[in-house]
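Reviewers of the previous submission asked for a worked example of the structure-prediction workflow described in the proposal, so we include one complete record here. The input consisted solely of the amino acid sequence. No template or homolog information was supplied to the procedure at any stage.
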Amino acid sequence: MSRTIRAGLLPRRGLAAAVGAWLLLPVVLPAQERITLEDAVARALVRSPAMAQQEQGVLTARTGQRQAWGSFLPTLSVSSSGALRSQNRFDPTTDRVVQGSSDSYSAGISASYSLFQGGRRFAELDVADAEIMAAEASREDQRFQVTLDTENIFFEALRQSDLLEVERTRLEQAEQNLSMVRRRTEVGRATISDSLRARLELVNAEQAVLQAETATRAARFQLGRQIGEGIPVVPVAPESLEPGPLLLADAEIMQIAEASSPGVVAARAQAGAASAQVSAARTAYLPNLSLSSGYDWANQAASFSDGTTSWSLSLRASYPIFNGFQRGTTVERARFAQQVANLQEEDARLGARAEADAALQDIRTAERGIEIAEEALLVASEDLRVVRERYEVGVATVLDVIISQAAADEAAAGAVTARYDYWLARARLEAVLGREL
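From that input alone, the workflow returned the following structure tokens.
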């Protein structure tokens, strides 16, 4: 009977293999580009919408600075006009139609310069400078965030590739287990239950391979999207994935996180811009002094001869005694915005410290996790070898082999996960500090 069952299993295995090959066909057809981590980060930064938005913010801030400098220059304008009328025209003074040309031509040039605005121009220039610093700091912070996202996606694609190899190894081991059971079945030393369990493990392994291939394909497509490609992109593993030293003491890392991390620098610049806005708002309580001049020409004929000219020069001072509480409202809003910006700066500093500490702890945990996972893999592999030998001599059951095989597969997946957990934690720490370690 065992021979009949074994013979019946063979067509099913061939059918499963054919179905599996058909399912795998779309995975291998599209061309897959290969890319290193450095190239992936560089391309992600170029095509990132968030980075483009930050670049636009820097450009806008620089435009505002140019406008602030332009307020120190005088304004200059020219004008001209011409009007033609009929010879007969109605004179509203006499209520009669009179004759005579009423054509007119004129031109003029005028200039004005604000002598004093209560220091507003200098305050607005300080605001513009602070906004440029804030925009550049925000851009730098976004650069590290995009880098972190790319590294996460890159290492996830690598992790899925390694997990796919683990599942393929599991499939090979399941095939070996089934062959071992068949040999024992041929000599009458295995039961029907042994064959069924070995076959079930093989089917589960095939299913796990298909799922791992799907996850790997999705991760590679995600990496392609991150770098601006519409095809799966295969990540090229770095030369070494072994943990390395940080080269900085924990105290230095925490100090850098609090003082110069991109998020903290951006928040500090925003607080500076809010403070400058308060100074600009207070200038409304001071008087304004301006100087203006002009030169005009007018004639009733289209000729520069026989025209009349005039010039003017005026000095004007103004001070709004009451403007409906607008000045006070503007100052209060600026003060409140400054208070919020200061709180955000403090929160950014505390957040950077907390994130740096969490990343450090994750790195330490991952380092120890790698050691534990490698030891577990070594023990599980040795246990699988021993159990198989015991099954060959009839001391253990196929269930023991399957349980040992599952433990070895889990240990292999744990070793893969622990290795990439370390590099993801290290990437998070670099994003917090704003520097490579």
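Residues 1-29 have pLDDT under 50 and may be disordered. We consider this example representative of the routine output the project will generate in years two and three.
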